[in-house]
Amino acid sequence: MRTPTAPTISGTVAGVRRRDDEGLVDIVIRRGRIVEVAEASPRAPSDLLFDASGARVSPGLIDLHCHLSGGGGAFGPVSRPQPLSADDLLRAGVTRALGCIGREAWEGAGQQMLRSVAAIEQGGVAAAMFTGGLGPLPASVLGDHSLDVALVAGVIGRKIALDDDSPTATPAELREEIVREVALARDFGRVPRFMVHLGTDMRHADAAIELLTLLPRQLRRLVVVTHLNWSRAHIGGARELHELGCHVDMTAAIRPDTFAGSYAAEEALEALLPVLRSEDRVSVSSDSNGATSHRLETGLLQVEHHPIGMLADCYQRAASRLGRRLAERVFCRNPARFLSEDPVSDDDARDDLVCAPGADAEFLLRDHESRLIAAVVPRRLLRMAGEGAGHDIG
């Protein structure tokens, strides 16, 4: 998901706190990678990238379900947000994002998403996309989802919709499609991921459970099932899906004040606490499609603000309700593990350590109230608050 040849930042982020029980340290960055983490000390102004003044380091949010090119919009065109930029994502604390196509059935929707991915990567945020989408004609880039997954740089996998508006392939048919697409992609040295999008009816979750049951066990961890906070029954289905070995995802876009009977993501996570405390395959994404932030005015549906901010808000609520370390695990580390080269590996980084020498410079700086101060990615550092807010540094 990273552009290796892009210009990168160098310098020192001084005076940060990695852990609550640790003194202040300096993080030295060279060409977009962390080369040293040392006890804080005076630095020459020419070497200083940013003075964090005791801010806490936290991992960047990773959004597995984001409508980067706009689109989506369950309430029609008026509820569709504008395309996202790298700045939009960084201001929400998102340092990696996967683009999803919704009901954009027009010709060229797949190519439009791919252009959005490329623009966001140029802006310094790691991005990729799922081919496929919702509706009777799920979008693609090359006209064939299997070829998209195997051949197109920037396509990480395929989105499969299980709802009333999309093609009605049976779980057995979908199982064969996934097995074929994985085999073809591996011929080209790729390991694809699959997003299973659930509709509001519990029978859609039942179909996902049947699909996962039919899949070979080694392929189940390549699957993320999303929209599992539609209802209490869906949350129960999340437990069963998790036991089958896939990754389960709640979306910040689903809230009780918008969809009757649904659960906010942090409430759904609380219901899944026994799973969260022992396993890693649970996350929260934005589903930034405009369906969450709307009101009726003069007979028209009006979007109040871009829903990407809802992921940042949801992180804050989850951190307050469930604790910061658990929130970081769900919003940052778990999706990173799903995207890793070897998602089946049991190896895991220490939960309380964010930055280490040799790693990419990809982290957030937060104040003592967890408010975002700056976002650091290999290509840039974007400051959020105070003098120079909104400007790149370095």
From TrEMBL:
TM region(s), chain numbering: none
Segments forming a coiled coil: none
InterPro entries registered for this protein in UniProt: Metal-dep_hydrolase_composite, Metal_Hydrolase
Full protein name: Amidohydrolase-related domain-containing protein
Source organism of the structure: Leucobacter muris
Species classification: Bacteria, Bacillati, Actinomycetota, Actinomycetes, Micrococcales
